[in-house]
Amino acid sequence: MLTPDEEARLRKFQRRVQDLEACGLVKTSVTRLTVHLAGPKQGLVGFDPDQFRSFSITLRQFLMQGDGDVTVGRVCNIIERRCQLPRLVGWSRHYRQSWNEVLQTPMEVAVDDGTGPKNYSFEEFFKLWLYSGTFHSDDELEAKIKAMPGLAPEVLMMLTQRRLPGVLEILRLIGEVIRIWLDDPSTPVEEPPSP
Description:
By secondary structure, the chain is mainly α. It contains eight helices and four strands; from the N terminus they run ααββαααββααα. A hairpin with a 4-residue loop joins strand 3 (111-112) and strand 4 (117-118). Helix 1 crosses helix 8 (152-183), helix 4 runs antiparallel to helix 5 and helix 5 (86-104) runs antiparallel to helix 8 (152-183). It is elongated.
């Protein structure tokens, strides 16, 4: 049986997904970013740092653990423990695995952050960006960003933004599992892929 706190957490997860969908970054759906390595327009073109920051405020809630959090792991744990619909439990496990793969897959380029070349994963770079002065100041992480040569932070930002549609789609699909389970359990659901 689902506790009131668990249901509130699941509903909050759904609301946070809706918040992400309402962000300007999603609405404008910039799909082409360009890095100018030289010349007067040096930098990232097609990237709006304010939109990315706004999106990130909400996205970080799916990554950071704490009281009342809506991390994918915690929400999927609730579904997998409490839901009595085996196909939805299977989809929850599938989406959790997809989420972890997206977070942990290394970016396409290695960047020297002062400690040697490193292929940051989406999650590593996102957290580095968040805690190097964007939301909190961690001197060690800020030093890593500053040690990156030239436009390396912009290139990593571009690669991070490129992964955002996939990240959002996984969150939407988990939200749909919650919606079917709590609001429309008679909805026919396909068999999830085998693990």
